[in-house]
Amino acid sequence: MIYQIWGENLPAVTITLQKGESIFTQSGGMTWMSDNFKMETGVKGGIAKGIGRMFSGESLFMASYTATEDGAQFTASSAFPGKILAFEIGQGQELIAQKGAFLCATDGIVISTAFSGVKAGFLGGDGFILQRFSGEGTVFLEIDGSVECIELAPGEKYKVNTGNVALFDSSVQYSAEMVKGFKNVLFGGEGLFLSTVTGPGRVWLQTMSARELAARIGGYIAAKK
Question: Which domains does the chain have, with CATH numbers?
Fold first, then answer.
């Protein structure tokens, strides 16, 4: 399997597969493909995992595409302005991502739910349920806006505006804390709470979230009425 991520504000990934290789995506995730694939749709991993995926922002059903000839090409595109990132996951590795980050993956990838914890769930802006990616293979994730990867040392902490944490290694601790100072809360413009990520591990931060953009557009439309 080889792939090319292309495009600018609305990127896509084109994956070239050899005979017998396969890729899977959520139902309706294919943008276009060559005429040499066998498609199968089902509840990948069973009903329990399928329902868990629904809570984490994906569909109950997954579609698998298996190449019937060498050189078969499959393209999936981002649904929101941002970036597509590819991750090679090996045995014992796990990534935790925001809801709706999954684009497509090779068959060895396992998608399950991750719980953010009580504080992060109530206060962090992303809810209680995130996406967990494990297994062995390649997974493609879509990130809102531009993205920066930061390597956190053990105990090193970053404070992040809610909604701007895109994904992180499972070794990273994810939580939320209240902004300190009465004037900071009233006039700082950051709201009551910030997300916190504590090392060791990598964290990918995004410059924009779909939720933030929708709120700004909604505020603009309301102001024009």
Answer: 2-224 (3.60.160.10)
